[in-house]
Design brief:
This protein has about 220 residues and is α/β, with parallel strands linked by helices. The chain has a single domain, classed as 3-Layer(aba) Sandwich (Rossmann fold). Helix content is about 55%, strand content about 10%. It contains eight helices and five strands. It has a five-stranded parallel β-sheet, with helices on both faces. Helix 2 packs antiparallel against helix 3, helix 3 runs antiparallel to helix 4 and helix 4 runs antiparallel to helix 5. It is globular and about 50 Å long.
Length: about 220
C-alpha cells in the first residue's frame, strides 16, 4: 500500500468529528483528490446500513456481542470497499474511528473483554492498523456536558445515552491503548480551544504524511 492511513479517536464529546471537518477544509485545497475522508461505522452503502442498525436508539434489546460483531462486520466492508482501494491509489485517508473504538467502547465500555474484541477485529481487518491514530482526550463528564449543550437531540445515539461510568471505562481504555502504542497513537488534550486542537492535529498529520505536502504547505 502506497497511501497513508490516519484514524481519529476519542470519547463522546471530544470534538474529533468537528476537528476532522476543519482539517478536511484545510487540506482539501492542498491535496485535492489525494485526500479521502471517511467514517466508521459507515463509509459505503453496506457499512452505513449496518451503522443505522447499531446506533438506532430503538434497538435496546441488542446484545453487546451482537453490537461488537456488527461493528466488526461494518469495518471489514469499509476496509475492503473504501479504505484499501484508497490506499492502493496513494491517497491520504482520514477516518473518523477505527479498531480502537471497538476495543474501548465494546471491550471496556460494554465489558465484554478488550482482548476478545481486539482479536475479533484482527480477523476483520487482517491486522491492518493506521500509520497514525490521533486520540482526542477529554474527561467523560466534559464530553457528556458538550453533548447535552451542543448536539442535536436527533443525533444522540445509543452510546451517547449511556451512564457516566460507561464513558469513564471507555476513556480509561483509550488511555491504556495510547500508553501501550505510543508510536502509533498520539494524544491531544481536547479541552483546549478548537483552534488549538486543530492546529495540533494538523501538525501530527503533516509529520506523518510529509510526502503529501510541499515545503511551507
Amino acid at each position: 500500500m502506497s497511501g497513508t492511513f490516519i484514524s481519529f479517536e476519542g470519547p463522546d464529546g471530544a470534538g474529533k468529528t468537528s476537528a476532522l471537518h476543519a482539517i478536511t477544509a484545510a487540506l482539501q485545497p492542498i491535496l485535492g483528490d489525494r485526500l479521502a475522508v471517511t467514517r466508521e461505522p459507515g463509509g459505503n452503502a453496506i457499512s452505513e446500513s449496518i451503522r443505522a442498525i447499531i446506533l438506532d436508539r430503538a434497538n435496546t434489546a441488542m446484545d453487546y456481542r451482537t453490537e461488537a460483531l456488527l461493528y466488526a462486520a461494518a469495518r471489514r466492508q469499509h476496509l475492503a470497499e473504501t479504505i484499501l482501494p484508497a490506499l492502493a491509489a496513494d491517497q491520504l485517508v482520514l477516518c473518523d474511528r477505527y479498531v480502537d473504538s471497538s476495543v474501548a467502547y465494546q471491550g471496556a465500555g460494554r465489558q465484554i473483554g478488550e482482548q476478545a474484541v481486539a482479536q475479533m477485529n484482527q480477523f476483520a481487518t487482517d491486522g491492518l492498523l493506521p500509520n497514525l491514530t490521533i486520540y482526542f482526550d477529554v474527561p467523560a463528564e466534559v464530553g457528556l456536558q458538550r453533548i447535552q449543550a451542543h448536539r442535536d437531540p436527533q443525533q444522540v445515539d445509543r452510546l451517547d445515552v449511556e451512564k457516566t461510568a460507561f464513558h469513564d471505562r471507555v476513556r480509561a481504555a483509550y488511555l491504556r491503548l495510547q500508553a501501550a502504542n505510543p508510536q502509533r497513537i498520539k494524544l491531544i488534550d481536547a479541552t483546549q480551544t478548537p483552534d488549538q486542537v486543530v492546529a495540533a492535529a494538523l501538525t501530527l498529520i503533516k509529520q506523518t504524511a510529509s510526502g503529501y505536502f510541499t515545503a511551507g504547505a
